[in-house]
Amino acid sequence: MNLDNYDLAVIIALGSNLSVLPSAPSDILCAALDQFQKSGLSVVRRSSFWGSAAWPDPAEPDYINAVALVETTLEPEAVLETLHALEARFERVRGRPNAPRTLDLDLIAYGRQVRAQSLILPHPRAAERLFVMGPLAEIAPGWTHPLNGRTAAVLAASASVGCDARPLPD
Q1: pLDDT (tens digit per residue) in 13-72
Q2: Is 104 a catalytic residue?
Q3: Residue 92 catalytic?
Q4: I need a labelling partner for 131 at 20 to 30 A (CA). Which of 2, 52, 152, 162 fits?
């Protein structure tokens, strides 16, 4: 993939705020990224790790987040199935919405595709979340949202959810 042409980019957001002993959330994200290649998702570029308070309940453990641009021959539904299988491998338990989790993998965009049925693309809430748009702007500031035409950099600057998200020191 031409790293400056985002029209084909498959964008995946990663997050974790629960440990799987002995692995801390940052270790879980690293391990998940290592599993991407074996799962047909070739990481082209990835952001640094970002930290933020849990949303919507900041009393929950803080999150570690990242975004990856990947290449794949998998169709969007197969990418989503792959992401769910990886979450399960890392002991993700699906309970109430926004509950703490060991691993959260979201398909943010699949090229320029726009879908409104079952698998919604682009992700319907990603544009308002700094913990997604901040890491995306770090690695692909010129990526434009398929629906609103705004760049990742502009969306990060105007995000209204997770406004405390910041890159973590290396």
Answers
A1: 999 999 987 889 999 999 999 999 999 999 999 999 999 999 889 999 999 999 999 999
A2: yes
A3: yes
A4: 2
**Long-range contacts for 73-80 (Cβ within 8 Å, ≥24 apart)?**
73/40, 74/40, 74/41, 76/107, 76/110, 76/113, 76/115, 76/119, 76/121, 77/119, 78/40, 79/10, 79/12, 79/41, 79/107, 79/110, 80/107, 80/119
Higher pLDDT, 120 or 2: 120
User: Is residue 29 within 8 Å of residue 21, measured between CB atoms?
Assistant: no
How many residues does this entry show for the chain? Answer: 170
Sorted by where each starts, the structural domains of the chain and their CATH numbers stand as 6-124 (3.30.70.560)
Structure-token match 């957001």, residue found: 13
| Residue 83 Cα to chain centre, angstroms | 11
Rounded to 5 degrees, φ, ψ at 16 are: -155, 140
Is 62 marked active-site? no
pTM of the predicted model, to two decimals?
0.94
Q: Which of 93, 82, 91, 96 is nearest to 36 (CA)?
A: 82
Out of 27, 45, 89, 106, which one is annotated catalytic?
106
Catalytic residue flag (residue 101): yes
Check: CB of residue 42 under 8 Å from CB of residue 33: no
Catalytic residue, candidates 101, 112, 150, 164: 101
Q: Which residues pair with 129 in a beta bridge?
A: 161
